[in-house]
Amino acid sequence: MGLLEDNHVYSYSQLSSFDECKYSFYLQRIEGLEEQASNAFAERGTLIHDLLDMWAKKILTKEEMLAEYERRYGDEVITAWPKMMASKGYAKKAYELGIQFLQSFDEFAGYDVLSAEEKFKIDLPLTNGETRPFVGIVDMVLREQSSGDLIICDHKSKSLQSFKKDEDKMYRQQLIYATYVKDKYGEWPAKNMFHLFNEAGCKMERLFTQEQYDEAIAWATKQIEGIENYSVLDWLVCKEKPDFYCAYLCSARKQCPNGVVELGTKRKTEEYEGYKE
After folding, report:
1. What is the pTM (predicted TM-score) of this model?
2. Are 207 and 124 within one domain?
């Protein structure tokens, strides 16, 4: 298990964090960083996720979601937006995008919601025959009314441009989650879906294939084995060049040299244009 506790439980966010930056993973998961830095992207995304979850569980109606968004926004989205975004009026735009999405929310017409925010635990294989516990939360499992297809759906605040840039990586999470869906429903999902609420609820879909599933499981196995084979000297190296993630998104940025580096204006703008939530 390397520097991890023997009973360590993995999640997709951990494997993704290790893939993004080993030092960030070390600070958060091995050192047990107590003060994790938040960001406005995550705060706003968490709020809308919660409202969608409450709608799916029939706790809130569409109209009540909008009222709750307006009521809670000022209390929950409290971290300042990056300066170059604020200078472009993005704080107001982000708020208004949420209003527009909720006003036009189609309530997943044509789909039946089978479950929402379901927590699960599965075992992922290692190459030596051992397994490691893995936990996750499936935003929604849907049944398409016209085709009967079973669909894993995940809500995301990413822009369409940013989603397409990282599309293959994005689908890994749902492919791994398909293990749980197969165990519970007795069938593999026919499709994986991303619900982009910053893009007026645009639904991006990809057909589920066994080949892509096997590739996702192999990636997860590689990440876990990489984490467990790292020594203390391997961990203590941050990214060579700080980027948008380092400066504004990483939860460990207050404890990392890259997190306090001021990116050049041109570079910040270019990275922001490619990210946009």
Report:
1. 0.89
2. yes
